[in-house]
Amino acid sequence: MSFVYKGLSANFEKLTVTDHELERQLVRLQQQTPRAVPVTDRAAKLGDEVVLDYAGFVDGKQFEGGTAKEQVLTLGSGMFIPGFETQLVGAEKGADVLVTVTFPEDYRAAELAGKPAEFKCHVLEIREKTPYELDDVFAKEVGGCETLAEMKEKLRQSLQAYYDDRAEMEVQDSLMRQAAATLDYTPTDKELEAGIDAQVELLKAQLGQKGLTLDAYLQFTGQTEQKLREDAKPEAINSLRIQKAADRIALLEGIAATDEDYANELAAICRQNRMTMEQLRPHINAQFEGSVRDNIRMQKAIAFVRANARVTVVDAPASKD
After folding, report:
1. Cα separations (Å) of 20 from 23, 151, 156, 166, 299?
2. CA atoms within 13 A on the CB side of 29
């Protein structure tokens, strides 16, 4: 079988944002971002936001990092040391509260771990969290827009861009899978093990975003890690084949990662990770540069396949809405 990567076909499944989906997203945003309204006629309770100044002391001495001005804290959030937030329940605006706690034994600052501490707190403000109405105030304070109508249009455009990007990724994946299927390549045992490792690491990262560990996931699903790795093998093989296909396309078409491409990619990495080039530079070595340039070549090879494919725009199935 000859290697085919030009003239492939795929459908771009166009999903158009409906009014129903737009309203659903607005309600979700409304639920996720309650309005903090100042209150002066009662004491603080769990669920309230309090704004406070505080200073921490251990053995009668103020310690570094234990002082803050106008700190916003939701009571009951668990953001502070255990016991800290509950001692602010019942405090009124303007009150001075002495909070006594003990740092956990495994506290990140070893010099404070396990030690009792006092925090002198001054409550500047108490705010009650209440739902927004879906009106122009919500649009201004949450959406950064003058009117709700403007916010809806902005959200519609954002959702449409997301759906289009997702559809485009599916097109590119379909094309590269087709090309990879015609490639005469079988991964070695070593390559396959590395590919499975990559799939497991990807799963770990996805679970981490949800606050889960791989062990917890295995326990919940009743799987073993051996079974998980076995199940990951087909996708690992496919990923390896796509990588090899991209390498072959780059070789056949003279696709390379130029110095300008590399510089642009470094700048993009800095933007995505909110760091400066000076902060990134210590992490740059031959392996890092090689990985970045390999990724650039792969993306350019995928773009070449996409540009030489027949892509038809069709309406997405209703089930995707």
Report:
1. 5, 15, 11, 20, 35
2. 18
Q: How far apart are CA 186 and CA 170, in angstroms?
A: 24
DSSP annotation of 293: H
Nearest CA to 299 out of 243, 252, 254 is that of 243
Residues 215, 225: Cα–Cα separation, whole Å: 9
Q: What is the pLDDT of residue 106?
A: 87
pLDDT in tens, 75-133: 999 989 999 999 999 999 999 999 999 999 988 888 899 999 999 999 999 999 999 99
| Complete DSSP assignment for 200-231 | HHHHHHHHHHTT--HHHHHHHHT--HHHHHHH
* 49 in Cβ contact with 150 (< 8 Å): no
Task: Compute the distance between CA of residue 249 and CA of residue 1 in angstroms, rounded to an integer.
Answer: 16
| pLDDT (tens digit per residue) in 122-155 | 999 999 999 999 999 999 999 999 999 999 999 9
